[in-house]
Design a protein that fits this description.
heterotetramer; A: alpha+beta; Butyryl-Coa Dehydrogenase, subunit A, domain 1; Butyryl-CoA Dehydrogenase, subunit A, domain 2; Butyryl-CoA Dehydrogenase, subunit A, domain 3; 11 helices; 14% strand; B: alpha+beta; four-stranded mixed beta sheet; four-stranded antiparallel beta sheet; 10 strands; 16% strand; globular
Chain lengths: 395, 385, 395, 385
C-alpha cells in the first residue's frame, strides 16, 4: 500500500499545474468566468482547448510514441487527470476517442488501423462517437439489429442507433453491427470504424430532460463501409465490445470529481439558510454530507484500485461494474443534496433571476438520472457482478 | 369505521378524471409550461362551470359546500394529469382561507366571482432565511392614516403572475407569531411589482416586490396582528393539496411505468418479467397506496377539525413529497434511456415531484415537527400515569 | 370516511375495558409484572387466559352462533382487538386456530367439519398448527412433496413439514398434502385436517436465532387420515390455501402493535443517554423516530382499510400482500432502533445484570428477521403485487 | 501509487486463513460462546507460536515489527472465521498501546510475555452517560502517598474476564481531556471486582468495579493527566480492528449466502438465478469490497501517522459497522427460514455484526465527526483563498 507518487510523477504534476495556470483563461474557476453560451462557440472553445492540450503533449500521454502518444508511464496520466479535475479543466473535446475508441483500437486494431486513426484521435482531427444502443437493444445490447451485409470489399449497413452521444459533433463513428443474423445473438456481431461523411448517415439530436441535447439518433441507410474498416475479426465483435465496455465503465477521475462536488456542497450548506440557520448547522444535512463523504471516499479508492491494476499492466474486467454501479448511484444522491439544501430555490431554472450558480445544481440533479442508465443500467451491472464476479447462474 | 371515499366523492373523482383525460392531455401540460400565464381561460371556465372552484366553498356564494376530502380527491386527479394553472392557489390558498377568516363583506365581494371562475388569487407568505414559521415573514405593513403601507419582498409566490387578488401576510409588529396581519391586495396596486421566476416544472411562481403599496383598513383579513392561526390553517390545507397532487401524479407515473414494463421487450421477454423491474413496480405501488392512505386520513382529520390534524398533515407531506420523487425516479429507471428524453413524459412527473417535495417544507422539516409531537405525547402519557 | 365507531361498539369497548381491568392479573403492563419463566407454566397461563376470554364470549366474536360464536358485527371484533392490544393483553393461546384455520373452515368446510371443529377451536379444546412449508418447499409452496395416497376411506400420508409454529403445543394440524403427483404442481394439492395423536406423527422443535423454539419440524410416516377430514375438494387445495393465506397475511392489530412499540421507543429515548444527552435530544434519533411514526401511521391505516373491506363483507385478496410487506419491513426498522438507542447495552442478553427491560429490544430485533420470511417472503409478496395486483407477466 | 496489500501481507492473510480454517471451525465458535473464558489456551498458544501476538510489536520484545496493515489483514481473517478470544483486546488494546506510550520498564515487563502468549490485557475506558469522548471517564484516581487510589465503575469492558493486566483510564482531575491518566492495573488487585455481562455474540465483556484499589506511581503509563492522546490513538486502532473483523465477517457471510443461492432450488431453479436474490448478492459484494477499501486505506494512513487518519478511521467505522449488519441481514433473507434457525451459522455473523456496529460509536456518531472535518476543511479552503 502506497498512495504516494514517485518523485518524477510529482515533478510532472508541478509541470502540469504550471501549464494549467498559464493556459487556462483568466478568471477560470471563479463564478465570474463563463464559457460561451452559444453551443457552437462553446464547442469551438473546447476544440481549441483540446488542441492546446495536444500541443503540450497532454493528450494520449501513455499511448505508444509511434502513434502520436508520449509513451509515458500510466502514473503520469493519473497525475494529469488529478490536476485537470482539481482545476475543473475540460477533459478534452474528444473524450470518447481518447478514453474508449483509442484504447480499443490499440488492443484490437491492426497496424494499418492504428496508423490511420490513433494520432488523429489525439490531435482531434478525428472526433469519435459510439454507435452502440438501438431502439430495441439497450440493456440487451447483443440483440442489436443494425445489419451489415458484405458486398465485395464493402459492408453495406442499414439500421438505427440511439443514445449516440456527440454524434452531431463527431466525424467518425465506432459502429456495432450484425454481420451474421443466423448465429446466436452474441456471435454474429462485428465492429466497424466508419467515417460520418459516408453517404446514408443521418443524425438527429435527442433532447434530454435537462433541456440539453448531448445524445442523438443515428439513421443508417445503405452506408457503404470498406472491409478494411472492420475492427478485430468478423463476427467476433462481442469480445471487442466487452473489452471496450471495460474502458467505458472504468473510472479514472470519478473520485476527484465527486470530491469536488462534495466540497462545493459543504460551501453551499454554509451559505444557504434553512429554518433561520445555515444549512451546515442542520444536523440532518450534516448527516447527509457525512454519508456522502464516506461514499466519495469509496469512489476515490475504487479509482486507486483501478489505477493500481492498470499500473500493473492489467485491463479492466467485470469488476469495473462495481465502480460504475457505486459511482452512478452515489452521484444521484450527491447531486440531489444540492437541490435539497436550496429547497424550492434549487428547482429554479437558468432563466430565473434568483437562480443559484446558473442552475448547476438542478442540472446536475437531472443529468445524474442518466448515470444509472447509460453504459449499462444498474440492473445490468448487478447482473454482471452476480454472474461474472460471484458466479451465480444466468437467469 | 369506514376508511374510504364515499360514493359521492368517488363519483367526483371519476368525473374529474374523465374530463381531464380529454381536456388535459400532456401536450396541454407542455404547452402551458412555456405559456406566460400557464393555463387556458377556456379550460378554466369549463372547470368553473363544472363547479370545481366552488366545490368546497359555501353554497351562499355559489359553491357546493362539500367537505375538504371531496376537494382533495379532485386535486388528486388534477395531479394525475399534471393539470397546470392556479387552481390550488386560487381555491385553497385564496378561497378557503377567505371563507374561513374573511368578513362577510370581503367574502361577498370575492367568493362569488372566484366560484364563477372570474377571479384568481394566491396566498403570499414570506420565507426569509429559509424559515417556514412566522419568522419567515419580514415584509412590513405600517399603519398610516386610515390604512397601511406595505413594503418588502415576498419570494417564490405560486401563481402570483396571474392572481387578481393577493392574500398577503405582512409583519405589523415584532412579536413572532403575534405580529402578522393578512391583507387583501389588488395585484394591480401601484407600487407592487411582480418578477417571474421559473421552476423546473414550468409552473408559475414570482417574487412580489412591495414599494410603499397603500391598502385601506378594510383590506385586513381577520384582525391586525392576528393572522398566524389563519395562515397556519391555510398552509395546512395548501400542504395537503400538494400531497393530493403528489399521490395523483405518482399513481400516474406508476401506471405509465407498469404499462411500459408489460410491453417493452429485452432479452426476449417483457422487462416486467424480470424481478429487478417487477419489484421496483411493486415498490411504487407501496409508495402510492401508502401516500393515498395518509392523504385521505389527514384530509378527513382536517375537515373534522381534529386536534391530530396538524401532525397528520406533517406525516402526509413527509411521505408524499419524497414518495412522488421516488416513484418518478424509479419510473425513469424502468424506462431506461427513453425516460431520459424530453419527448417522453416521465420527466414532467419527476420535475413536478421535486418541486412538490421541496415546497411547504421537505420531509426533514416535517419530521422534526412529528418528533416534537411524539415527545409531547410521551410527556402527556407519562404525566398522566 | 369515518374512523369513529358506532355507539354500540363504543359501549362494547367500555365493557371490554372493564373486563380487562377486572381480569388481567394485578401489576399487568408494569415492569414489575412477569409471566412465568418456565415455558410449560407460561403456556398453562396462556391457556387459562384463553379459557377466561372464551367464557366471557370474547373468542370468535363474529363467528356464527351455531358454531359457538357470538354472531357479532365485525366492528365489535376490531374493538376487542384494539383494546387487547392497547392493554398488551395476550391474543389467546390458539391464534392459528381462531385467526386462520377457523375462518378457512367456515369458508371451505362442510357442515360436518364445521360442527366438529369450530366450537372446539374457540374453546381451546382443539389447539391448531399449520403444516405448510417443507424443506424443499418454502417460498415455492406449491412444490410440496408430502404425499397422501388414498387407501379405502383413508389418506395415508408420508413426508415432512418444517417451520410449523406451535406444533409442539397443538393437538390438530392443518396439513397440505400432494394427492396427485402427476398433475401440474398447483393442481394436485389437498388440505387435510389431522389429529396430532394419529400414529406416525413426530414433532421436533427448531431452535431459532432468538434462542426460543416457536417452530418445529413435523415428520409424517404412514399417517392414516380419514377421508372425511379432507377440507374442500380433493386436488383443489390451492384454492383453499390462497383463501387461507389471505387470512394469514391480513393485519388486524398490526398498527396498534407498532404504535405501542413506537411509544415505547420514544420513552426509551428519553431515558437513555447518548453522547452525554438523552437520546431523545439527538436530532438523528429524532429523525428516525419521526420516520417510524410516519410508517406506523401507514400500517394503522392499512388495518383500517382491511377492516373496512371486511365490514363490507369482502374477503382478503392479493392486496393483503401490501400490508404484510410494508409491516414486516417496518417492523424490522422499528425493532432495530431500540437496540441502536441503547448502543452496546442493547446487545446484552437476558442473563446480564445490566440488561434493559429483560432483553426485549434485542429479542424484538432478532425476531423481526422472521417477519420478512414467514407467511411468504418479501420477494414473494413483491411478486404477488407485481403479478396479481399490477398485472405484470409471471417470470 | 499502489493500492493493495503487499505480497508479504497477502501471504500472512493466506497463512492465517489456512490455519483458522482448521483450528476455528464454527463448532469452536459456538463452544466458546458458552465458555466462561471464551477461548482455548491451546489455540492461543498456537497463535502465539505463529507469531500473531507479536506481529506488529517491536522485535526487541520478540515481535516481528511489521506495520499495522499486516495486523489488519490478520484480524480481517479472524473476523472471517469469527475467531473468539481476547486477541484484539490484548494485542491492539494492550500491546500496541503500551508499545506506543509505555516506559521501557513497563514494556519490558509485559510485552515479551504478551508476545509469547502468556499474558492477556485489555483497555478499559469509561463511557458514562453514553459518552465516547473524554467526558465518559468518570471513575477516579486520587493520588495518595506514593501511588493512587482507584474508585468507580467501568462498564462493558471487552475481555475483562480473562485479562491479566488492565490498562485503565481514570480521571485524575476535572479538566476534560487533560484530566485523564492511564494505569496498568493487575486484574487480581484487591478491591477490583469483575462482573460479567453477556452480549448476544457470546464474546466476553464485563463491568469492572474499583473499590479503593491501590496502584503505585510506576503504574502510570505516560504522564499524569496526559492520557487522552494515548487513549484516542489506541481507540483508533481498536476501532479499525473492529472494521477489519467486520470486513472479514461480512465477506464470509456473503460467500456462504452466494453458495446457498447457487445450490438452493425453488420454482425449479437455483434461487441465485432470480434477480431479487442475485442483485442482493451483488449488493453484498459492493458492501464488502467498499469496506475493505476503506479499511486498508485507513490502516495505511494510521501506520503512516498521517493527519487524515482520524477521519479515515471514522469513515471506515461508519461504513463497515453498518455494512456488516446489512450483509448478514441480507444473508438471512437469502437463506429464508433456515437462516432464522439457531443451527444455521448466519446468526453468528449477524450478532457479531450488531455488536461491532454498536461498539466504539455507531455510524451516526462517526458521521458527526466526519461532518466536523468537512466543515473544518471548508473553512481552511475558504480562508486560504
Amino acid at each position: 500500500m502506497d498512495l504516494t507518487y514517485p518523485p518524477e510523477a510529482e515533478a510532472f504534476r508541478q509541470e502540469v499545474i504550471a501549464w494549467l495556470q498559464a493556459n487556462l483563461p483568466s478568471g477560470w474557476g471563479t463564478p465570474q468566468f463563463k464559457l460561451p453560451g452559444d453551443p457552437k462557440q462553446r464547442r469551438a472553445w473546447h476544440v481549441d482547448w483540446h488542441r492546446k492540450m495536444h500541443a503540450a503533449g497532454y493528450v494520449g500521454l501513455t499511448w505508444p510514441k509511434e502513434y502520436g502518444g508520449q509513451g509515458a508511464d500510466p502514473v503520469m496520466s493519473m497525475m494529469l487527470n488529478e490536476e485537470l479535475t482539481r482545476f475543473e479543466a475540460p477533459q478534452g473535446a474528444n473524450a470518447l476517442g481518447t478514453r474508449i475508441v483509442g484504447p480499443t483500437i490499440i488492443q484490437f486494431g491492426n497496424e494499418e488501423q492504428k496508423r490511420a486513426h490513433l494520432s488523429k484521435i489525439l490531435s482531434g482531427e478525428e472526433m469519435w462517437c459510439l454507435g452502440m444502443s438501438e431502439p430495441g437493444a439497450g440493456s440487451d445490447l447483443a440483440s442489436l439489429q443494425t445489419r451489415a451485409v458484405e458486398e465485395g470489399d464493402f459492408f453495406v449497413v442499414n439500421g438505427q442507433k440511439v443514445w449516440t452521444s456527440s454524434a452531431h459533433l463527431a466525424n467518425y463513428i465506432y459502429l456495432l453491427v450484425r454481420t451474421d443474423p443466423t448465429a446466436e445473438k452474441h456471435r454474429g456481431i462485428s465492429v466497424l470504424l466508419v467515417d460520418m461523411k459516408t453517404p446514408g448517415i443521418v443524425v438527429r439530436p435527442l433532447k434530454q430532460i435537462t433541456g440539453e441535447s448531448e445524445f442523438n439518433e443515428v439513421f443508417l441507410q445503405d452506408v457503404r463501409v470498406p472491409r478494411s474498416n472492420l475492427l478485430g475479426e468478423k463476427n467476433q465483435g462481442w469480445r471487442v465490445i466487452m473489452g471496450q465496455l471495460g474502458y467505458e465503465r472504468s473510472g479514472g477521475s470519478r473520485g476527484m470529481n465527486c470530491q469536488r462536488a462534495l466540497e462545493d456542497l459543504v460551501r453551499l450548506a454554509r451559505n444557504t439558510y434553512r429554518n433561520g440557520k445555515p444549512a451546515s448547522e442542520d444536523p440532518i444535512i450534516r448527516r447527509k454530507l457525512a454519508q456522502l463523504a464516506i461514499e466519495v471516499n469509496i469512489v476515490r479508492l475504487t479509482d486507486y484500485k483501478e489505477m493500481t491494476i492498470q499500473l500493473q499492466g492489467g485491463r479492466p474486467g467485470p469488476e469495473t461494474s462495481f465502480g460504475k454501479l457505486f459511482w452512478s448511484e452515489l452521484n444521484q444522491r450527491l447531486s440531489s443534496v444540492g437541490v435539497q439544501i436550496l429547497g424550492l430555490e434549487g428547482t429554479l431554472s437558468k432563466q430565473s433571476s434568483d437562480v443559484v450558480k446558473n442552475g448547476e445544481y438542478l442540472y446536475a440533479f437531472l443529468r445524474a438520472y442518466g448515470n444509472t442508465i447509460e453504459m449499462g443500467t444498474s440492473e445490468i451491472q448487478r447482473n454482471i457482478i452476480g454472474e461474472r464476479v460471484l458466479g451465480l447462474p444466468r437467469g | 369505521m369506514f376508511f374510504d371515499l364515499t360514493d359521492e366523492q368517488k363519483a367526483i373523482k371519476k368525473a374529474a378524471r374523465d374530463m381531464l383525460e380529454i381536456e388535459c392531455p400532456r401536450s396541454y401540460v407542455r404547452a402551458m409550461m412555456d405559456d406566460a400565464r400557464g393555463y387556458q381561460p377556456e379550460l378554466w371556465k369549463k372547470m368553473a362551470d363544472l363547479g370545481w372552484m366552488g366545490l368546497a366553498l359555501p353554497e351562499r356564494y355559489g359553491g357546493a359546500g362539500l367537505e375538504f376530502l371531496s376537494l382533495t380527491g379532485l386535486i388528486e386527479e388534477m395531479g394525475r394529469f399534471l393539470l397546470p394553472g392556479p387552481f390550488v392557489s386560487t381555491v385553497v390558498g385564496g378561497g378557503l382561507t377567505l371563507a374561513a377568516a374573511g368578513s362577510p363583506v370581503q367574502q361577498e365581494s370575492i367568493l362569488p366571482k372566484l366560484v364563477r371562475g372570474d377571479l384568481l388569487m394566491t396566498l403570499a407568505v414570506g420565507t426569509d432565511h429559509g424559515r417556514l414559521d412566522a419568522g419567515g415573514v419580514q415584509n412590513s405593513a405600517v399603519r398610516q392614516g386610515d390604512g397601511f403601507v406595505l413594503n418588502g419582498i415576498v419570494r417564490l409566490v405560486p401563481d402570483a403572475q396571474t392572481a387578481d387578488i393577493i392574500l398577503l401576510a405582512a409583519r405589523t409588529s415584532q412579536q413572532h407569531e403575534e405580529g402578522l396581519t393578512l391583507f387583501l391586495v389588488d395585484a394591480k396596486a401601484p407600487g407592487l411589482s411582480v418578477h417571474p421566476q421559473y421552476t423546473t416544472d414550468g409552473r408559475k411562481v414570482a417574487n412580489l416586490e412591495f414599494s410603499s403599496v397603500r391598502v385601506p383598513s378594510t383590506a385586513v383579513v381577520g384582525r391586525v396582528d392576528g393572522a398566524w392561526p389563519i395562515i397556519a390553517a391555510a398552509q395546512r390545507r395548501l400542504t395537503l393539496s400538494l400531497c393530493a397532487e403528489a399521490v395523483g401524479g405518482a399513481g400516474m407515473a406508476m401506471e405509465i411505468s407498469v404499462e411500459y414494463a408489460k410491453t417493452r421487450v429485452a432479452f426476449g421477454r417483457p422487462i416486467g418479467m424480470f424481478q429487478a423491474i417487477k419489484h421496483k413496480c411493486a415498490n411504487m405501488l407501496v409508495q402510492v397506496e401508502s401516500g393515498r392512505f395518509l392523504l385521505y386520513y389527514a384530509a378527513w382529520l382536517l375537515q373534522e377539525g381534529a386536534s391530530e390534524a396538524p401532525e397528520a398533515v406533517a406525516v402526509a407531506k413527509a411521505w408524499c413529497g419524497d414518495s412522488y420523487t421516488k416513484v418518478a425516479s424509479d419510473g425513469i429507471q424502468v424506462h431506461g434511456g427513453i425516460g431520459m428524453t424530453w419527448e417522453h413524459d416521465m420527466h414532467l412527473f419527476l420535475k413536478r415531484a421535486k418541486v412538490i417535495e421541496l415546497s411547504s417544507g421537505d420531509s426533514d422539516y416535517h419530521a422534526e415537527h412529528i418528533a416534537k409531537e411524539l415527545e409531547r405525547r410521551a410527556t402527556a402519557i407519562s404525566s398522566a400515569r
